[in-house]
Amino acid sequence: MFMTLIASQVTAGSATFTPTFTLAFFNFTGWEMLLIAGIGLLVFGSRLPTVGRNLGRGITEFKKGLKDAGEEINRDEDMRPAITERGYRAPLTAAGEDRRVVQGEQMKSEQ
Fold it and tell me: 32: how many CB neighbours lie within 10 A of its CB?
């Protein structure tokens, strides 16, 4: 039932017989699967609603976690400045000086 040996014939050249054996584990038929499901239902029948409820909660939490992680990734991408954007620089004056620099007397620091 659980393990069967399957023999296959291999012919090479002048009709030589070479038996090879392959282990076929869990080669269940429909009736065997139905019998196993029935035994499982008898053993775990009283706990199935609890197991189903916990499984549903676990799947819901997993999906929520995936959604939250996706939103966090998208939020991080939106907050990051675009690499293709360049900063604006004010044009220089006719004398070639930067307008943002204050031109004037130097102040002496008090010591």
Answer: 13
The model's pTM: 0.38
Check if the beta carbon of residue 103 is closer than 8 Å to that of residue 97.
yes
Question: How many Cβ atoms sit within 10 Å of the Cβ of residue 106?
Answer: 5
Q: What sign has the CA pseudo-torsion 64, 66, 70, 75? A: positive
In DSSP terms, which residues pair with 4 in a beta bridge?
24
Domain boundaries, the chain: 3-31+42-76
DSSP 96: S
Cα–Cα distance measured from residue 23 to residue 3, given in angstroms and rounded to the nearest whole number:
7
Q: First and final CA of the chain: distance in angstroms?
A: 99
The one-letter code for the residue type at 111 is Q
pLDDT digits (tens, 9 = 90+) for 49-83: 998 899 999 999 999 999 998 888 887 777 766 55
Looking at the DSSP bridge assignments, the partners of residue 27 are none
CB 62 within 8 A of CB 39: no
